[in-house]
Amino acid sequence: MKTYIYTVRGMVGKADEDKVAEIVKSLLDVAECAVSATSSTVMLTVDDKIYSQDKIEELLAPELEKNGYELISPPNINNYAYVGDKKRKPAKKVSLSSMIAAIAVTAVFCILFTYVVAFNALSPGYSGVSDGEYPEYLDELNILDDVFKNFYYYDIDDEEIGEQLLKAYVYATKDKYAEYYNAEEYAQLMQEDAGNMVGIGVSIVNSTIEINGYSYKVLQIISVYEGTPAYENGVMVGDCIMFTGSGDDKESVDSLGYTMALDKLSGEVGSYAEFTVYRPDSSQASGYKEVDFSIQRAEFVTQSVSYEVCTTDNKVGIVKISQFDLTTPVQFSEAVDSLIENGCEYFIFDVRNNPGGDLKSIEAVLSYFLEEGDLIVSTEDKGGVTAKDYVKAVRYTGNYEGCSVAESDIGKYRGLKLAVLTNGNTASAAELFTATIRDYNLGPIVGTKTYGKGCMQYIIPLERYGLEGALRVTTAMYFSASHTVYHDIGITPDYTEELSDEAKDYNLYLLPHDKDNQLQRAIGEIKK
């Protein structure tokens, strides 16, 4: 028997873990298989007399890629770095940095509850780098570094080694929510948290369409952001991206796979995204009309909140919150106000698949439902130091301006008849939203048990220590007003309702209202 550990890119949650495990077990007779989306790894034990490494990769790589994943071979084995439809290339250097990278790189399932702080804001009296005992592992690293620099055939990239060591340190702490960001990654993180993105302005999901009895993998567009290049060029919700590129560079999404197709659609401001969509059209024999696009990429603001009137009951407004970023409070308020103007009397707040977000964002949104002085959240660090945040009017500037709370904002939605929809991917700040609605008896919770993340992270800029980038690290546990512990437990809804088999045949983002039994149950409960 032999054990292999592979990196598999593209996994973000439990559903992906189950899917990858299913693929592995369907193709290989494995003695053991462990899949982790958190570390982006698959560990499998097989009879090496039956399965060589090449055989494993030959069987797994194409099937994983068809399902939107990318298989990366273990480091320092056969000198191969990439596995899949691409031609294999020898690794540039089989070095310490590449070995560290193999264990340090993790897929980010954005179950966040974060706040950007300066170091001295972490806790009272915090003054800087620890004066504790010099750790022994630093001497060991110096020895390792000397050995490599004296005996290793290739040159050492000190900058790469340093960055990967920082990432490896974070990984070794076993804080599954921690991460080191280099300067570029940190800048991108801050831009995304502020809702600023570069692209054409659409949200997509991995999907499949059938044409003349054949199934094809596509990227289905589920939303087009108003005022973006896609919106202005006529891209429509429901369009299915079948091909990327044009002319000789045209490639099908089905052959590229999910990850590579996304890479083809990404690019810098001013560059062009070229793709072909299949648009549903009953007048065509195939059921679809081909539409080609060449759209110049630009900066745009993301939509963390979407809303609509329920198709089965025009008195019900549905507000879906995909995450709590710095755009959420303003977009949330606009959504609810618009639905009220359209005559809605009942409201469903859908936080299914919401991974969480920023502390100030969720505090602003909850202020709309609470009264001044109400407790929103309390935190406790490992030293037992506690802090409490209460509803109050507050004015921010800069990126956080949208999280400001005016006196008139406080409690403006307190009397709404509402329900909250949850599932196993409702996490962190979305769980605080759910728990607070319950604590203040504002409406029923419907769906399935939430993820169970009751810890919070700080994003700490490292500039003051002469380092680039920033560190995300778990610093405290947090609690809603009732102080109920749900970390590693989850929140059980007031009314548990599993998605029906019929509903599971749809992508959740494309699920029709009349097929969504969780939604219909929530409507029934608030109308009792």
Characterise the protein shown here.
With 528 residues, the protein is α+β, with helices and mostly antiparallel strands. It has 14 helices and 25 strands. The radius of gyration is 25 Å and the shape is globular. It starts with a strand and ends with a helix. The model is unreliable at 75-112 and 117-129 (pLDDT under 50).
**Strand residue percentage:** 25-35%
Task: Report the major sheet.
Answer: 7 strands, mixed
Radius of gyration: 25 Å
Just name the CATH architecture of the largest domain.
Alpha-Beta Complex
Helix content: 25-40%
Distance between the termini: 60 Å
Q: Would you count the extended β strands for me?
A: 25
CATH class of the largest domain: Alpha Beta
**Uncertain stretches of 5 or more adjacent residues:** 75-112, 117-129
Secondary structure elements and pairings:
Blueprint: E1 2-9, H1 14-27, E2 32-36, E3 41-46, H2 53-66, E4 70-72, H3 96-104, E5 113-116, H4 136-151, H5 158-172, E6 179-181, H6 183-193, E7 196-199, E8 202-211, E9 214-224, H7 229-232, E10 240-244, E11 251-252, H8 253-256, H9 258-265, E12 272-280, E13 288-296, E14 298-301, E15 305-309, E16 316-321, H10 328-341, E17 346-350, E18 357-358, H11 359-367, E19 375-380, E20 386-390, E21 417-422, H12 429-439, E22 445-447, E23 455-461, E24 470-479, E25 495-496, H13 501-504, H14 517-526
Parallel strand pairs: 5-18, 5-23, 16-17, 17-21, 21-22, 22-25
Antiparallel strand pairs: 1-3, 1-4, 2-3, 6-24, 7-14, 8-9, 9-10, 10-11, 10-12, 12-13, 15-16, 19-20, 19-24, 23-24
Helix pairs in contact: 1-2, 3-5, 10-11, 11-12
